[in-house]
C-alpha cells in the first residue's frame, strides 16, 4: 500500500507539513504542488493510499477538481484539509464530489488533530462545522455537470471582457440564455462572481492565450478593460 500524498500550494511549508504529519504517525509522506496532468501522473506513479488535498489548492474549484480526480482514480481516498478560512458553503461540496473526509482548522486545534488521526487510521472524518452544513440540506446536489461547447464559448467571451449583452449578440442568443450558460458555469466550478470565474478559467486552463481577443466580428477594436491595460503597461 502506498503512502500519504500532500497536495498543497504552500511550497515553503511542505517540509513543515511533512514533519507534522510524521509526528502524528502518517507514513511515507510525500508532497507536491503539481496540478491536473502532473498530479495525475504522480498519483499513478506513487499509488498513495491517501491524498491530503489543501482545500484552497484550486481556489473555489478544488471540490470540482477533487471529483475529476476521483473519476480518474475511483478508489482513491481523498481528505480535504482546510488550514485557513475556507468558506463552509464550498467545503460541503468536497463531500458531495466524493471526498471521504474534511478536516477543518476552524473547528479548533484539538478537533483538527483528532480529525487527522481518524483519517490516518483509514476512517471517514467530516468536520463538525461542515457536517452541520450538510445536514441542513434535504438532498445531495447533482455534481455531474459538464460544460458544453456553447458554455465554453460564453466563458471565452467573458474572459475577453464581453458583457452578457455583447455575448448574446455575438452568439445570436438571448441575454437570458447567456445568463443561463454563465449560471451553469458558476455552479459547476463553484465560482461566486464573474471575477472568480475568469480567475478559475486561467487556473484550470479552460481558456488559452490564443482564445483571448478584444474585438468583435466587425473588427472594431474594443477598449481593453482596466486590468488588461495595467498588464500591458507592465510589459
Topology record:
Elements lengths: L3 E4 L6 H10 L5 E4 L4 H10 L3 E5 L7 H11 L5 E5 L5 H9 L4 E4 L4 H12 L7 H8 L13 H11 L4 H8 L3 H15 L4 H10 L22 H9 L1
Parallel strand pairs: 1-2, 1-3, 3-4, 4-5
Helix pairs in contact: 3-4, 4-6, 7-9, 8-9
Explain how this protein is built.
It is a single chain. By secondary structure, the protein is α/β, with parallel strands linked by helices. It has 2 domains: 4-135, Response regulator (Rossmann fold), CATH 3.40.50.2300; 149-224, Orthogonal Bundle (Arc Repressor Mutant, subunit A), CATH 1.10.10.10. It has helices at 14-23, 37-46, 62-72, 88-96, 109-120, 128-135, 149-159, 164-171, 175-189, 194-203, 226-234, and strands at 4-7, 29-32, 50-54, 78-82, 101-104. A 5-stranded parallel β-sheet has the order 2-1-3-4-5, with helices on both faces. Helix 3 links the parallel strand 3 (50-54) and strand 4. 29% of the residues are buried. The mean pLDDT is 89.
Amino acid at each position: 500500500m502506498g503512502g500519504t500524498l500532500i497536495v498543497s500550494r504552500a511550497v515553503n511549508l511542505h517540509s513543515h507539513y511533512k514533519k507534522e504529519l510524521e509526528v502524528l504517525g502518517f507514513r511515507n509522506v510525500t508532497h507536491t504542488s503539481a496540478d491536473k496532468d502532473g498530479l495525475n501522473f504522480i498519483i499513478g506513479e506513487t499509488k498513495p493510499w491517501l491524498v491530503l488535498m489543501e482545500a484552497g489548492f484550486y481556489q473555489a474549484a478544488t471540490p470540482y477538481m477533487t471529483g475529476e480526480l476521483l473519476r480518474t482514480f475511483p478508489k482513491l481516498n481523498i481528505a480535504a484539509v482546510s488550514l485557513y478560512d475556507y468558506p463552509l458553503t464550498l467545503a460541503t461540496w468536497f463531500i458531495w464530489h466524493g471526498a471521504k473526509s474534511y478536516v477543518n482548522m476552524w473547528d479548533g486545534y484539538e478537533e483538527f488533530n483528532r480529525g487527522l488521526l481518524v483519517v490516518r487510521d483509514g476512517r471517514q472524518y467530516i468536520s463538525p462545522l461542515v457536517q452541520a452544513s450538510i445536514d441542513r440540506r434535504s438532498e445531495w446536489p447533482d455534481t455531474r455537470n459538464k460544460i458544453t461547447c456553447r458554455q465554453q464559448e460564453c466563458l471565452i467571451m467573458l474572459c475577453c471582457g464581453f458583457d452578457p449583452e455583447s455575448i448574446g449578440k455575438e452568439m445570436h442568443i438571448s441575454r437570458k440564455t447567456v445568463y443561463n450558460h454563465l449560471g451553469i458555469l458558476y455552479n459547476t466550478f463553484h465560482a461566486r462572481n464573474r471575477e472568480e470565474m475568469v480567475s478559475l478559467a486561467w487556473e484550470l486552463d479552460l481558456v488559452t492565450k490564443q482564445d483571448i481577443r478584444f474585438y468583435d466580428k466587425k473588427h472594431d477594436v474594443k477598449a481593453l478593460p482596466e486590468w488588461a491595460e495595467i498588464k500591458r503597461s507592465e510589459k
